[in-house]
Structures are given as structure tokens and as C-alpha cells.
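User: I'll paste a sequence; please echo it back and then give the predicted structure.

Assistant: Echoing your sequence first, then the prediction.
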Amino acid sequence: MTTVQSPPAPPTAIRPRVVARTGLYAVLAANVAVVLYFFFAAGFASNALIVLGRLTGLAGALLMAFQLVLVARLPWLDRRIGMDRLTSWHRWTGFSVLWALLAHAVFITFGYAESSSLDPVNQLIDLAETVEGVLRAVVAFGLIVVIGVVSARFARRRLAYETWHFIHLYTYVAVVLAFTHQVAVGTSFTSSSAATAYWYGVWGVALGSVFVGRLVLPLWRNWRHQFRVSAVVPESHNVVSIYITGRDLDKLPARAGQFFLWRFLTKDRWWQANPFSLSAAPDGTQLRLTAKAAGDGSAALRHMKVGTRVFAEGPYGAFTAMHRTRPEAVLIAGGVGVTPIRALLEELHGHAVVIYRVASDQDAVLYGELAELAQRKGAELHLVSGPVTPDKLAPAELSRLVPDITDRDVFLCGPPPMMNAVIGSLRELGVPQEQVHFERFSLAG
């Protein structure tokens, strides 16, 4: 198999994640400055509560637009930061939007009530009935509250992903309603032609990013590459590999360690999107994913027919050699988390130590491939099996297996409990944070 290999970044290079994160912060800070300028230029209301209401409303609008950019799945950001971190930032930004808009509603309502003879409840009703756009804002806020509630951890655990995702789509309805409210009554929006142009630009970029990243780019790539299942290979009693072919796969910007959201276009699966990592480095002719039967969807892959059309969204993820800071590496896999690790080993240059943690030797899927690849690459391979306790990847054990671990990049993938334990061990051993690379793929769905 011919693979495309890339040399590691020199240790002195600025880390791609730092560049992207700094760029996001700088863009957000610049927009805050512009918003404040237009806010002050529009002048103050006589009522301090109304002033606070307008300011929190502008903050909520800007955060809502920023939130859309975070989940637009723009390739430049995704490759440098990773979908898991972007999704996490999106989630916390969403809660900030909720609190900002709640403050906006309270301050505005009480502010106008202070200037009239109405109580706050009747004042809100009066505003909704008499002021253009306020009723739309109330509906938008109600939708955001519902979305915020179902996005809380206690609710997410009880909802199927498809149900949560369908409810979450109402975010876009809330965005449109909030924008029309801002157009109708936003003092800062209407204070000058420059302010109007600015806000149209902000919402245009935010919604345009989502449109391009979530719709146009996936549709274009699938039309161009025409993905199909070319082979289905059982790896064990509960693990299967799916080989995907298509047109011009050498033009697909996929790298070892990344994943796709796969939809297999059969009558009973077309509506399900599952995140699976590439289990082999892309070679320009085919892609391979390897999945464990963790649910009905992944179990059904074993019976997938050759020739089935596939709709693939991606590639996604920052778990790649792009983020290397050292010439040598440690690759730590747990269970089926070996799939991106095996792909990474195929692409990496320099000496590597591979540690594969499984409950028993029989669970070590792809081990034969991994051993052959390690021998060809001159890498060390350690199969660590046994029960969870005692911890066989504790600091002392890791130090024994890799004495120079603090001088290496560490790539880690596996079940969340194992990853948390290993991250703790690496921290105790003094491995610098910038040398530890992982991605929590459960957030990608």
C-alpha cells in the first residue's frame, strides 16, 4: 500500500492549534470592539436598565453568530483545533448566549416598565403586541431555552442522538427570528449605514459558514468522489472493516488519524450518521474504517453489501501528525481506539513506540497488521492485556515501557475512562501538555 507521508513539524514551528485559537480570539475581540463602538455611537437611553438591555442583546447576538462559526465544520479550523474542542466551545458559548439573552429580556422589560405604569409581565405583553419584532424575539428566546435544556448533560444522556439533533436544528429558526428582531428594533443596527452593513456582514459570514461547511462542501465532495462500499471484512466476532472506493480519492484531503461521519445509503440506514475513524492511512485509491458492534447501527455493518452507496461527511479531526512537536512518538491505543493509531503509525516518520491496551489478547483487533507495520517501520510494539485493575498504564508502567516518554509526542485514543487515566499518568510523569494529542470522538457525533 502506498501512503502519503508528511514530515513532522519542526520543534520551533508555531503550533497549528495555537495559531487557530489565537486567530479565533483575535477575531472575536475585534468584533467586540466594533460592537462597542457602534453601541456608544448610537447614544444612550435615559433609562439605565434599557441601556444594559441593549448591551446584553448585542452581546447575545455576537455570541450567537460566533457559535455558528464554531460548528460550521470549516476545514481550516477543524484540522487545527478538532471537532471535539470546537463542539465543546460551541456548547459553552450556547449557555453564554442563553444567559445574555435572558439578561436582555429582563433588563429591557423592567426598563420600559419603570418608564410606564405597567408591571413587568404586562409590559412584556404590551411590547410583544405593539412593537414590531418583539414577538419574534420572544419566540426565538423560547426556542433557545428549549435547546439549552436538552443540551444539558442530564438531558443528553436520556435522548437519542437523532432526537437531540432534530431539536437542535431549531437553533437556525431562532437565529433567523433573532436577526429579524434586531433589524426591526435594534438601535445599534439602525443607527448608521456602517452599523447596518457591519451586522449584515456578521450574520452573513456566520450563516454562510454553516451553509458552506455543513451543506455545500459535503454535497460537493460526495458528488465528486462517488463513494461506494468495495469490501466488507470481518476482523473478529464483533469487529468489521469496511473498504470504500470512489473517484479521485487522491484529491480528498484526508489524513491518518481523521474520521468521517458515514451514512450508508440503504433503506434502513440512510438517515443514520456514525463517526468512524480511518483505520488505514489514505492511499489515494481507497478508504477503510473499522467498527466495533457497539449498537444496532454498527452491528449491521457486517451485513453491508458491496456496491452500497456511501455519503461521507469529512474528513474531520485534529488527531494527525500535523500537530507533532517532537521527532519521536508514543502511540497509545485502547480497544477499538487502535484504528486511528494504526493509521497514524503508517504515516509517521521517526521512531515510535506503540502501546496497545486490551482486556484480553483475543480483543486485540488489527494486531497482526499492527505487528507487521511496526516491524516494517522499525517501531516497538507492546500489547498490554488484563483487567482494569491494577492500572497497567500507571506512571511507573509507562515509564518502564518508554523511559524517554517526556521527550516524545504522545498520541492517545481509547475509551474515555482509559484516556482520562492515561492523561493523568502523563501529567504525573511531567509530559508537557503540548506534546499530548487526543480527541474525544464521542463528541463528534
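Confidence is low (pLDDT under 50) at residues 1-12. The radius of gyration is 25 Å.
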